[in-house]
Amino acid sequence: MNLSPHLSALESEAIHILRDGVAEARNPVLLFSAGKDSTVLAHVALRAFYPSRPPLPLLHVDSTWEFAELLGFRDAFAARHGFELHVHANEEGRAMGLNPFEHGDVYTSMMRTDALKKALDAGGYDVIFGGARRDEEASRAKERVASVRAPGHVWDPRRQRPELWSIYNWRTDKGETIRAYPLSNWTEADIWAYIAARDLPLVPLYYAAERLVVDRDGALIVVDDPARMRWCEGEHPVKRMVRFRTLGCWPVTGAIESDAATTAKVIAENLTASISERRGRVSDDGSLEAQKRSGYF
User: Fold this and answer.
1) 157 and 39 fall within a common domain
2) Are 236 and 187 contained in the same domain?
3) CA angle 100, 105, 109 (to 5 degrees)
4) Same domain, 21 and 163
5) 112 and 51, same structural domain?
6) Is the C or the N end of the chain the one with fewer CB within 10 Å?
7) What is the dihedral of CA 82, 69, 182, 157, to 10 degrees?
8) Are 231 and 206 part of one and the same domain?
9) CATH number of the domain that 93 lies in?
């Protein structure tokens, strides 16, 4: 399927940002969660540098509580498209038994934020591309396309640089890095329209299927690993037709009831959605900006 003029313009903008940033970077990297947005961004990167091998690796920060299907998709995607794949986990936190059931913000800080910062420092990356979009959440709407981070990966919204006429400033002082968002101007609807137009494969979790779930305070939690589940008294999983609009750690990511098992049905269903996609991230709870200021993506 050919791209619409709107999607073609968005793709061209993203390709320009990727080429511009890679040309200015000493050691670029593309964060890859294997979610729909990072998958789209990785495909755009393949187009940006075709027919050459992608000139930047994929980096996945493994929280150690990822969906099994997501990890399988991640490995297969990197192998199929010739990406070098780097995976980093906070082994100290793993040894401590940190988990999203019992440790909340401490878990997020150590297994997501601290793990990301350590991975970036270990790799010596200076320009870090990611698939975040401005329409996802209020704090992300404050980001520039090329967002400077102070030493220690600290984000200060007041230090954002102007980007008049889509001219991006990639310069950094000692210890600074750039977080770059080529999909900034895309919406959830744009992402799904692009997936349909380019016929991109996604991790199956985005499509409706019968899955074992428990209802916790209105959130449908898919029991991805029964052996690691922390069960509440009297709790029993039941099979329901569900899918995900957003993916995070499986114990704190709520699914939605759905029968949308194809991309076309997902697009139609999203048109009538009355809540934002990140409402499924039980772990956000209004704290995303605080996490971003301390170094979270």
Assistant:
1) yes
2) no
3) 100
4) yes
5) yes
6) N
7) -130
8) yes
9) 3.40.50.620
Query: What is the residue-averaged pLDDT of the chain?
Result: 91
Burial level of 285, CB count in 10 A (0-12/13-18/19+)? Answer: exposed
Residues 161 and 163: their CA atoms lie apart, in Å, by 6
Interatomic CA distance for residues 168 and 161, integer angstroms: 9
The number of beta carbons lying within 10 Å of the beta carbon of residue 199 is: 8
* Predicted TM-score of the model (pTM): 0.92
Instruction: Locate 126 and state its tokens.
Output: 């200076």
Contact predicate 267/1, CB 8 Å: no
**DSSP state, 100?**
T
Q: Using the structure block, give the residue that is written with the tokens 């977080």.
A: 179
- Number of other residues whose CB lies within 10 A of the CB of residue 16: 14
Residues 138 and 270 placed together within one structural domain of the fold: no
**Domains of the chain: total:** 2
For the stretch 61-114, pLDDT in tens is: 999 999 999 999 999 999 999 999 999 999 999 999 999 999 988 998 999 999
Give the model's pLDDT for residue 232: 86
Q: Confirm whether 255 is domain-assigned.
A: yes
Judge whether 197 lies within some domain: no
Of 132, 122, 127, residue with least CA distance to 170: 127
140 with 16, same domain? yes
* Domain ranges, residue 67: 5-192+286-293
- Cα 76 to the chain's mean position, in Å? 17
Q: What DSSP string runs through 48-87? A: HHTTSPPSS-EEEE--S---HHHHHHHHHHHHHHT--EEE
Sheet holding 177-180, edge to edge: 85-88, 58-61, 28-31, 127-129, 177-180, 146-149
* Alpha carbons 36 and 157: distance in angstroms, whole number: 26
Same domain, 112 and 254: no
